[in-house]
Each structure stands twice: as structure tokens, then as C-alpha cells.
Write a structure and sequence with these properties.
Layout: H1 6-20, E1 27-28, H2 31-38, H3 42-54, E2 58-61, E3 65-68, H4 82-88, E4 93-104, H5 110-115, H6 119-124, H7 126-130, E5 133-143, E6 146-156, H8 164-167, H9 174-180, E7 185-196, H10 199-204, E8 216-226, E9 231-240, E10 244-252, E11 255-263
Antiparallel strand pairs: 1-3, 2-3, 4-5, 5-6, 6-9, 7-8, 8-9, 10-11
Helix pairs in contact: 1-3, 1-9, 2-3
């Protein structure tokens, strides 16, 4: 948890867990249970719960415990759901699964392998490291049926079930998939670049109706870490430039902990899973 107060990382994990929908019954774990689950002290959980209560997201009552104040929550300040952001601007969010496959890391781009810490090993032992299996999940994110982002997510296969590709529903929030494995996003590093859309991206994102000069995309390469600073996912998102007008970052200490798209004139948001 280098450079970031421990309770802030737990707070971000809690926000992600709430956004994932795993607390649909609106009841959150007791402090001792959650402290044991996340491997932190009870005082850290108490501090994080206190901040959520201050924001009006949860309430704590004697004899009842800790519950969500509403099934429709305000957007959290950390890594949050793109599904929720699309809903927040009165659009119907949907996700289309394009592909879900198991590949050797040698088939991924070099920056993906490096993110998982496999590049140095590959140089020393190309045969073994090159065959390290990854799950590659390609999805098209839409609002009111209109594509807004094409995303490819890479996961280290050894950290998830062997039958993940056959059993997980990748058209729903991927946070819920992580939650099933007791993995929760805590902070992220992201690099953003802007460029003209390729012909394939124009077709996939249905940008042919835009003037040629407006067919731009933001490319976001993001590495997301869990509460133990392990790489949880590596993602590349290609976002329509006419939908994502700006990007906003929150920086704590010397470390970038979250950076996500701000909406156009209708809304501002963070997060994206």
C-alpha cells in the first residue's frame, strides 16, 4: 500500500465492492469479519466505514449493523463502474462479449507481459514464461445500444478458476467476477493517449456517421491492483472521443490512484469496469 494511507485503499475496495452489487441485500459485513477478510485491523475498517457514513452511503445502527442507505448509490470517488456512469446520464448500459479466450502471454503485447512482471523472466527463460496462461476478455460497452468503448481485459489465469471462461458472465460488471475470488480493485495506474480511430475501430464503435475530423479515440492502458498491491487486471480501453470529452484524476501522496473518464457536458464520472 505504498504511498497511500491504508484506510484509503480499504475505502476504495469497499467502494468497488458496493459498486459490484455483491451487497444487494444492502447489509455490509461486521467490522471484525471485514477486517479478517481484507487482512487489516478493525480500526482501519472503522475509519473507512466512518468515511462512507459521512458521505451518506452507509448507516450504522445498534442492533442492525451496517447497511447501505439506498440501493441506488452516488458515484464513488475511486475506481467505479462504467455501467453506473452510463446509467447516471440516463442511458441504458449494456455489454456485448466479443471474445473470451485463454492465451499464452507470448500472444499478448509486451506491455501486458511487463505489467504482470513476466518480461524479465521471459528474457531468462523464454520457453516457460512465454507459455504463462492469461485470460483475454474482449467487450464492447454501450449506452442505449450505442458503442462507447471497446475494451480488452487480461487476467493471470492462475489467480482465477480454471473454468472461468465457461462459467463467468462477462456481460455484467467484471467487479462481481473478481469478488467471487475475493479480489477487489484498490488503485490503478493509467496511461492515456489520443489518436485518430483506425478503420476497424470506426466500424466497431459505429463512428462512420461522424465527420472524419471527429473520428478520434482515447486509448487507455490501465493496470489495476488489489489491496495487497498485486496486479488484478491489465486493460486497454478504446473510447469514443465524442462520448468521453475529458479525463479527471485523483492523486494521493505521490501515487496516482485513480483516473477515469469524465463525461461530456451531462456528467462527470470516475471509474470504469
Amino acid at each position: 500500500m505504498a504511498g497511500i494511507a491504508k484506510y484509503l485503499q480499504v475505502l476504495q475496495q469497499l467502494e468497488a465492492m458496493i459498486q459490484s452489487g455483491i451487497y444487494n441485500d444492502r447489509k455490509l459485513p461486521a467490522e471484525p469479519d471485514l477486517a479478517e477478510k481484507l487482512g487489516v485491523s478493525r480500526s482501519v475498517i472503522r475509519q473507512a466505514y466512518g468515511e462512507l457514513e459521512r458521505r451518506g452511503i452507509i448507516e450504522r445502527r445498534a442492533g442492525i449493523g451496517t447497511t447501505l442507505t439506498s440501493p441506488h448509490l452516488q458515484k464513488a470517488s475511486g475506481i467505479t463502474s462504467l455501467t453506473g456512469q452510463i446509467s447516471a446520464v440516463d442511458m441504458q448500459p449494456t455489454t456485448r462479449l466479443l471474445a473470451a479466450e485463454r492465451i499464452p502471454v507470448s500472444m499478448a503485447e509486451a506491455w501486458v507481459a511487463e505489467a504482470f512482471g513476466l518480461s524479465a523472466t521471459a528474457a531468462a527463460d523464454a520457453g516457460a514464461a512465454a507459455q504463462t496462461p492469461l485470460y483475454r476478455i474482449s467487450r464492447l460497452r454501450c449506452g442505449d445500444g450505442r458503442p462507447v468503448a471497446a475494451q480488452v481485459i487480461y487476467l493471470l489465469a492462475a489467480q482465477f478458476r480454471a473454468d472461468l471462461l465457461e462459467t463467468a458472465d462477462f456481460t455484467q460488471s467484471i467487479f462481481s467476477v473478481y469478488a467471487e475470488h475475493d479480489r477487489f480493485p484498490a488503485h490503478a495506474e493509467e496511461v492515456i493517449s489520443a489518436r485518430p480511430a483506425t478503420a476497424a475501430e470506426i466500424t466497431l464503435l459505429k463512428m462512420k456517421d461522424l465527420p472524419a475530423r471527429s473520428r478520434t479515440v482515447y486509448v487507455r492502458d490501465r493496470i489495476t491492483y488489489d489491496g495487497k498491491d498485486r496486479v488484478l487486471e491489465v486493460m486497454r480501453s478504446v473510447d469514443r472521443g465524442d462520448f468521453f470529452q475529458s479525463y479527471r484524476y485523483a492523486i494521493q501522496g505521490a501515487h496516482l490512484v485513480d483516473g477515469l473518464a469524465g463525461r461530456s457536458s451531462r456528467a462527470q464520472g470516475e471509474g470504469d469496469v
